[in-house]
Design a protein that fits this description.
With 505 residues, the protein is of the alpha/beta class. The chain folds into three domains: 246 residues, Rossmann fold; 180 residues, Glucose-6-phosphate isomerase like protein, domain 1 (Rossmann fold, 3-Layer(aba) Sandwich), CATH 3.40.50; 29 residues, no CATH class. A six-stranded mixed beta sheet has the order 1-2-11-10-8-9, with helices on both faces. The protein has a five-stranded parallel beta sheet with strand order 4-3-5-6-7, sandwiched between helices. The longest helix is centred in the N-terminal third of the chain and has 22 residues. The protein is globular, with a radius of gyration of 24 Å. The mean pLDDT is 96. It binds 6-O-phosphono-beta-D-fructofuranose. 6-O-phosphono-beta-D-fructofuranose (F6P) binds next to loops. 6-O-phosphono-beta-D-fructofuranose binds next to loops.
Amino acid sequence: MSTEADAIWQAIEDYPARPLAKLFADDDARLEMLSHRLDLGDTDILFDFSKTHLDAGLLGLFHDLAKAMHLAGMRDQLLAGAKINISEDRAAEHPAERGTGAADAVRQADALHMRMAALVSAIDEGVFGDIKHVLHIGIGGSALGPKLIVDALARDGDRYDIAVVSNVDGAALSEAVSRFDPSRTLVAIASKTFTTTETLLNANSAIEWLRASGVEDPYGRLVALTAAPEKAAEWGIDETRILPFSDTVGGRYSVWSSIGFPVAMALGNEAFAAFRAGAAAMDAHFASAPLERNLPVLAAFVDLYYAQARRCQTRAVFAYDERLRLLPDFLQQLEMESNGKRVLRDGSALTRPSSPIVWGGVGTDAQHAVFQLLHQGTHLTPVEFIAARLPDHEFDAEHHQILLTNCFAQGSALMTGKASDDPQRSYPGDRPSTTILLDTIDPKSLGALVAFYEHRTFANAMLLGINPFDQFGVELGKEIAKSIGERQSGDFDPSTRALIEAAGL
Ligand code: F6P
């Protein structure tokens, strides 16, 4: 990292941050500075960073850091499809999947989307018979995005009933197929590399389940979603049912590509296009909004302030909406697999904390489980609340009112605290939170929200100087599992050897 950046980090760490209550008292224009709406045409999203310790002075320092770390230039390179993933010598072209970026990459992604839309329409028209169920098999980035979006937007299962199976534990597959009629099931095998052990084993077992249930041609029920179409073909899947995507799209950034097939199946082609259009709107904002009003950039400033200057080791995300209950799971992979790194882009050591640990849950449940620690524990944890103004259920409006009032009450309580003569009953307050309020949870808003998180993760990485697009850290465990599987236990430490023996492997 440059000495210029080091000096700015030092200034950020030494900055005499004022208490949140004082920041509001001192500045009438605080909301205007730190609360912004993203206009999506017929809907919008409000991002409120005002309950964090950012102020004009800190914003100035982070702008200096952004300049020293060439954030704007790196963003332009990302969006132009430059080879920004240097350790793997390739671009990171997930934005092209929603129409943002170099013309060639966008054209190629568009053609693949048309192909997928044609397959979805053919299934709708009954080409594969009376299909009702889609068993989506994938893991990590090949599961978490589709699972989040299907769970958020297709709870009624109106078009197709979708199950996403990721875990290699057969209990997961067993549970999913127990509610499916095999004669009406399609199996989507989602794997960027088409080599992932868990996914291929689950896929084989799903084929066996189809066969054992009397489906004559189980292979005729398979759809492959992959950046390695030749491997899917070798595996026996017909070329017409292989939906490829570019290997420049990272797994955790791939929900926009054919990995989003179950989303298109669950919601229809139009809604999947709206989901991508929402992301494109966030791309356009990220590309052009000035840094002081640029939402992913402001969010990254907040993240870095707490992770670096306040040394917070975690950040907590609470969705005050049942439809977004899987958001923390999705963000864990996005942020921790992207930015859990120990070296800079040039391979030299990262000398400051990398990604905070992301955890969270759903409100109001979490209030009755973990919020005690947030209010009175000794850890300082920046909290993010996500809610939607409009509900989507048939019950009394009171449900949603209570949900939202609780969400806003928590942010207020964390910030203001409450003094008491009794230390047990005293709340220190001055605890930061960010609130993201969607107007409604629809494909376009969710597309914009997920793209916001992607760009925020990228901005964090650029300001630290790391590469968010590789994940070499996950390889060693895979290698060792393979050796154990091959009974090469002689090489293991005594503890691992004893465990292998105890389990009878
Ligand atoms: O093991 C980590 C990982 O490589 C993730 O990055 C990826 O999303 C997941 O495994 C699944 O990989 P694939 O899509 O190639 O099956």
